[in-house]
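ok trying again, last paste got cut off:
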Amino acid sequence: SPEPGDANSEHVNPEVESSPESIEISSEKPTSEKPTSEQPSEQPPPDQTPSKQPPPEQPPSEQPLPHQDPEP
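nice, full thing came through this time. structure:
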């Protein structure tokens, strides 16, 4: 009688613990990796924007460009 009860209790514990833990770790890993890989990915674009700014600065359209930059 105690043996089966222990087996059930032990089996449920590992399963319940492993489920939430697995989901939390799995969710945290992708979530942490996504933002990290997204930030570096977004940095390159900003670098290209400043590079293109110099040319636009010559024409009168330089005013609208600076306005769009601070907005985002």
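cool. Residues 2-68 form one domain. The mean pLDDT is 54.
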